[in-house]
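User: Could you check the structure of this?
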Amino acid sequence: MSEMDADTKNRISKIVGDADVVLFMKGTPLFPQCGFSNRAVAILDHCKVAFESVDVLQDMEIRQGIKAYSEWPTIPQLYVKGEFVGGSDIMMEMFEAGELQQLMDEKQVAKAE
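Assistant: Sure, the predicted structure tokens are below.
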């Protein structure tokens, strides 16, 4: 695991703590820059939850830092109520099993407008 400075860790902690659902992704929800990020956005849209996104391509410190923060090597990464859920494969498995919607409901995350 790579090291990250305290400033980057604090920035990530604030991002993760400030929103019910946060997706660290490549690109934006309107213009995802990889298939995995596109799939993650589609899953969250289908769950009809409001979410914040962070484009890791715009910030190299966040791009590297999030991998150390979660101890997860790939992007996208989903956080719900401050807890790391997983990447797009885990999101897909949970979605198909109905577990992701259940998690969103249990955590009472904000619905999309």
